[in-house]
Fold:
Amino acid sequence: MGLYGFFYEYFIRPIEENKGYNPVNTVVYAVILGIAVLVLYRMLKRMGIRVDDRFFRALMPYIILGPLMRSMTDVGILPRTYLTVSPGGYFVIAAFAIASLYVVWRHVGPEERFYPLYRDFGWVLVGGLLFVLVINLNKVSFNWEVLKYFLPALAVAEVFIWMVSRKVALVRDNSLLFYTHFYDATTTFVGIQFLGFWEQHVLARWLINTFGTAAVMYPEKFLILFPVVFILDRWMKDEDPDLINFVKLTMFILGFGPGTRNLLIMLMGG
Structure:
């Protein structure tokens, strides 16, 4: 198998045939993500942009772009290509986010005006996608019955995190991450358990097949998230706070993005 054959077999064919992830592309994408986090962190430091609440709020529209584009692809509004499904779609959104960040930064620098301008530019992009969605609503078959399963399951999951956060300081200090990833776990649980969807990620798919229920997503999320935030908050507490915040921001995106994608796809009949 040549280089092209290898790339086609493990990276292109799974998208063409909707087979989900495999061990090879999972490892490669994880390495790319790790490198990207370090490169982007260094870029923000050079630009003098702090990774704080202002930056988080300004980045939200770009975080929403990914799941919105993917859900519109799954219902047939956007063409299904490597650049409109994950992970290619997230590369495209990241490129938009970085290009917008650079343009705004060049215009106003890292001063206070940067954050609302960067945020508003992102909302313009979201508005453009929503316009495309509105003029193609005839392709969408909304399934509001999803909420009958989703809302009770989400309530139970988030109450569990709230109860744990009252006893465990590490969870309380990182409650947004735990709430977000349990939201993601809930969309997976509801989609697979009640609506006939399937899991694309290798580890989660193996766990679901092994235990026979998508409810295994909840302990999987907790058992992965807890040691990661322990390392960040305890072992790396003397590191640059911007680095810690950027890693946590990445973790938030990895929960919020897929969770919102799942929910939109279910609601839109994808």
Summary: The longest helix spans residues 241-267.
